[in-house]
Amino acid sequence: MPYAAHSASRWLTTMADGTVKQVSPFSGTQVWTVPGRGNRPLSHHPKEPEPLGESALTHTCNFCEAKQLATPPEKARAVRTERGWEILRNLHPDQLAQTRAEFRRVPNLFEIVSYDYWVRNYGYQMPEAQRAHMEDYLADPAGREHVYDIARTRLRASGAGEPETEDELLEVVPAYFGGGHDVIIARRHFIDGAVDDSQLASSGTLTPDEHGAFISFTVDALRELLEANPYTPYVVVFQNWLSPAGASFDHLHKQLVAIDERGVQADLEISKLRRNLNLYNEWGVNYASYHNLVIAENDEAVLVAGIGHRYPTVSVYSKSATCEPWKQTAEEVRGFSDLLHAAHAATGADVACNEEWHYRPVDLDVPMPWRVNVKWRLSTVAGFEGGTKIYVNTLSPFDVRDRLVSNLYRLRGEGRIADGIRIAQECGPARNVLKYNPLL
Ligand SMILES: [Zn+2]
To answer: pTM for this one?
Structure first.
């Protein structure tokens, strides 16, 4: 089908009564926004806030700072030093208190795709360095006790009952050294100085510098997981924030899961990308720009309101010519992080949301930019959707833009988002600003 950038109206139509009909240019998903439903508050407070107890800041859940042995053995941590942020790897239990981890990377207690999956289906063996670390950890009495405790917890919870022999425990242990499902945990459960349990620490309540460390630490984990497993073309990276978005703890964390596919959505986009290398400029950012849906930008990235998403969505696109986030410069990753942080801060810590990363699978031959969607998990009308496959959103892309733009101006005035972010009309015309396309 021919595509004319300015006149293409099939993705986004506003009808006479104000109904906004959207079709995703990437997935074909159809979404309607019905007028009059968009003014409701985004957050739902299920209960009155309760005052925090003395140790709540450090002891509320198993991801909290005082419970570092409640998670499987730490793979890495990001710490602040006089020289800036540093990553420490493979610490033993007696080393955990020697530094303060602002972010920790640990294996998930229950993997979505298990270590066993890779061993049985592919003959996978963990890299030699990881095996050596596992043996080292088991040779340390505190390490052995820790990892056996974790293995017991897992066996009990899975219904296998109390393990009877050490061999039963040892069978589970490799999953916590060679597995491909990691969790990245932020230090805080509540913001500093919090007095009640509504004051959760979210991506948006981090400082821009802390968020930058969070993102570069996640990119480091992504690189490591891809390098550790020659059978995975793709590691899924996501963040579920609050229980309506699927989070099991109200404690900020991201997850990374190595898979042996690219995913259905990626395959669909790749077939479109092969026909039009400039896909993400034309249908992502240029189209948003022509419809005044660019929310903010800086030199490294651009933030737009998404079209045709089942939930109201904003997307951050990297402008870098380098597709792989782990090959980008520190400045490029930091600039991308700054816009993502601003999107979270302007969304608000009380809004349940999913953060979903997309980037070029390692075995893909065509270029594709790094981009992240933030989806607001607001309620929708299920029966109507089941019958029609048309999703009803309470907020149109224009509503999403307006909320974020006014919040971004306020946050900038308060000094809570990074410098160098241009908002709404301050942005230049976003025409082919994504340099992943080598033809540009
Ligand atoms: Zn916690």
So the answer is: 0.95
